[in-house]
Specification:
globular; mainly alpha; single chain
């Protein structure tokens, strides 16, 4: 999924189209980079589950036409809600609360369990 596709999905969730939601486009790239930074734990958990090295810094997009550097399910099912929430955070609190809640719930479903060693207490 590209940043543009995620942006269009977020607009759809907000009841907007690319023509009616032009105002939000200027914020989309920065908001997607914020989502990537906020989701580093989940991205790394999925990378670990796939036997890939963890990232030490969050991935970033430099343009909306780039592919989101996250698992396809995470990008397609979670990020549109997170992006929608960030785009309307200052304009519509009800839509923000709904989209942020959906994002948080969906994010929990896409984070594989992280196993930690059991430590003996002395």
């Amino acid at each position: 999924m590209t940043g543009t596709e995620c942006y269009h999905a977020a607009l759809n969730l907000l009841g907007e189209t690319p023509n009616t939601g032009v105002y939000y486009e200027q914020f989309a790239l920065g908001a997607l980079n914020q989502l990537l930074a906020n989701s580093l734990r989940e991205i790394n958990a999925q990378r670990t589950a796939q036997h890939e090295p963890e990232l030490t810094v969050p991935p970033r997009l430099s343009a909306l036409d780039e592919e989101l550097p996250a698992d396809d399910c995470l990008a397609a099912e979670c990020f549109p809600y997170g992006l929608a929430a960030l785009l309307v955070a200052d304009d519509d609190k009800a839509k923000f609360n709904w989209a942020a809640s959906e994002y948080a719930e969906r994010l929990l479903c896409h984070c594989p369990a992280q196993l930690t060693a059991v430590q003996e207490m002395i």
